[in-house]
Amino acid sequence: MKRLLLFIFLPIxxxxxxxxxxxxxxxxxxxxxxxQIDISWTLDEMNSQMLLFDFKIFSNKDITQEKVDFIERExxxxxxxxxxxxxxSFNGKTVEIPPPTNFKVSVENHRLSYHFTIKxxxxxxxxxxxxxxxxxxxxxxxxIVHDKTNVTAAIENLQIDTEITxxxxxxxxxxVLIIRMHS
Amino acid sequence: xxxxxxxxxHHINQYQRELNSQIASSFRGLDEQGLYGSLIIIAIxxxxxxxxxxxxxxxxxxxxxxxxxxxxxxxxxxKIGYLVSIxxxxxxxxxxxxxxxxxxxxxxxxxxxxxxxMYKVSGGLIVCVGIxxxxxxxxxxxxxxxxxxxxxxxxxxxxxxxxxVPCPGVMTVVLFALMLGHLLVGIIAAxxxxxxxxxxxxxxxxxxxxxxxxxxKSDKVLKIxxxxxxxxxxxxxxxxLL
Lengths: 183, 242
Hints:
- The complex is a heterodimer of chains A (183) and B (242).
- Chain A has helices spanning 2-9, 45-55, 65-74, and strands at residues 20-30, 35-43, 86-90, 93-95, 101-108, 111-118, 127-133, 140-144, 150-153, 159-168, 173-182.
- With 183 residues, chain A is an alpha+beta fold.
- In chain A, the strands form two sheets. In chain A, strands 1, 2, 5, 6, 8 and 9 form a six-stranded mixed sheet that branches. A five-stranded antiparallel sheet of chain A has the order 4-3-7-11-10, with no helix packed on it.
- Chain B is mainly α.
- Chain B contains nine helices and no strands.
- In chain B, helix 1 (2-28) runs antiparallel to helix 2.
């Protein structure tokens, strides 16, 4: 029922519209059996302020392991139901997002950042790897930061070229990073 | 069409991202900037409101549905747009102050819970308004003559039902101002933002009123619109309740 209504009304009503703006940076290392993707999300200043106030973090000095564990448990891990707002496809096939590891938190210029790593299994030979972050409900708006995104390949003779572009996702345009690999 | 809409949303998001960060940095520099800084914040907040309400939501669909059958004068669309924005602002201020001063615990969690709750309240009220419009329609049909009466209570009911959801965008700005200790500027910025949103919501009503004027040349189309209008309003309310 909800789906039907959503289909009818989405163009005019979709309840949510972005209230949280997130800058995304990717550091990607292509390895033979998997790809390591280090993701950083930097929240907008106003939402950062609210969360930092809650976490009682005023500078990087206030970040203790205890607080990081708390944020991971109470906030970050709840995003599993949204696949951590990440999507990956390789040669057009959707790649499963494995549970993130290495969760970290930092603060810079009053803005809160989450850092985490995912290692999807991708047998990189040749083809097109597509990576993006988006919220289908458009409550969070993700934006890939060009000069903070790196791609390297740890495979001999593998040539890569990258492009940040955008793509249509059901009434919504999202930033995607496209990595083309060829030997 | 789908592509165009996606692009449109993308652009709106980009503008909002920029304005959002401008408001934040202006608040940080407010102590040095003084009055000039406050005026800048108010101006940005107004534009932010206009653009923010141009995205999906904010009751534009309800206003448009209502005016499809009840639209008479353009001035009425503006009246209702501004009624919505007044209720919107008051709801946002009350809830933000409540979260800030009364409720112990995490802002971020209370924030989302309270907004979710208000969506349900709003959905319920919208359904009630829709049913009321339907009831009036059936009453009119039984009379066998359609008298275009606009009871003065109806616009208030519509405005209340959709405005009661505080805009999380406004709440974020107010909460941010409170945390930085700029209470007054925060409230004025919230008002400026709501006036901006009122303008956009009014435009939805104006377009629907124009549409109705064109349609009312044919009695048949007008009748169909009068039946569709309350059904649309009810469905939108149900959508929020689900």
